[in-house]
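[Meeting: bench + compute handoff]

Bench side (C.D.) handed over the final construct sequence. Compute side (W.E.) agreed to return the predicted structure before the next meeting so the bench team could plan truncations. Sequence as handed over:
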Amino acid sequence: MRDGATGSGGRVAWDAAAAKAAFGFRGGRVSAGYGDVRRWPAGTVSAERSTNAMAGHAGLRDRVAVVTGASGGVGRVTARLLGERGAAVALLARGEVGLEAAAKDVRDAGGRALPVAVDASHYPAMRDAAERVEAELGPIDVWINTAFSSVFGPFTELDPEEFERVTRVTYLGFVWGTRVALERMRRRDRGVIVQTGSALAYRGVPLQSAYCGAKHAIQGFTESLRCELRHEKSNVRITMVQLPAVNTPQFDWVLSRLPKHPQPLPPIYQPEVAARALVYAAEHPRRREYWVGGSTALTLLANKVAPGLLDRYLARTGYRAQQTSSLPPTGVGNLWQPADGPGGRDYGAHGAFDPSAHGRSVQLWASQHHGALAGAALAGGAVLGLLRRRRNGRPG
């Protein structure tokens, strides 16, 4: 069955061969353009349903949230955390085995779950998925984009169709997810969109040219869209969470041209750290960005100050740091078909790097409590000034 078609039970299906053979739209002109702005009648959107009421766990109870890339890794933990907060969660991904297991995680956590098998790179399929979510769960309040694909290797060793596929999934998957969410949120004048970003959205690294390019594109797309929403004085919020390297199954199922098993650039964080940040951003969407991990902050700041120095450092260390001989090289990968699809297995949320992964992020805590930290810094400065004056014999 082709992408965008509806299978038995209304499930949005996809076909790996069709995905590889034809990347473009199927099903005609894209409808419901951004110029089609309609608002609900006055009074139909209550104050308790407004975006401004998202703060705190109670703000997500009984909300409808969509997570793309929900069958494994960060998306999977994010879906479970939303379930813990009482949300109705639509889980979107290609891998049906992983999706069903992830849906069970959500239900076990106390939430409602709707797994939908869909390829995020195809707009018609994503539009159909969003329609099904609203028909079965209700109006979408939160949309979190995490779905991506990648291929490891030097740029000149990647096949053009592989590079294009990564771009379509990792970049256009976010674009189409954002679009189908906005087509519904804008006419209600409420909703939250959370983009899963990366330190690599600001700073490219060797051996991941397709992924880095897509993440840079998402960054620019999101900034442009944020300006448009502000121009409209829209109450729809869009925020982005910049992540460090995360211990997910990506490194087990990614397509790789490397001689050794790919690994995250250290330091490595557990997917729970990333998922907590995404859920927090959904609850507190007024911040334009959140940075997770000290390495993210250092990378972004260093790239502003000394990008040439980083070029030389990554050229010297980036190849060795992204490979390990402690694991066998990866196989075909999940670029064209899901590793956790029919006949596959459930990979869960964690990858193979648990022993070296961090379970907390001081940078995330600081990002969440920047106001309190600023107040404490001001108070501390005032106290130090008072003590200095007293030591010098001057009255306070």
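W.E. noted at the follow-up: Residues 1-53 have pLDDT under 50 and may be disordered. C.D. will use this when planning the next construct.
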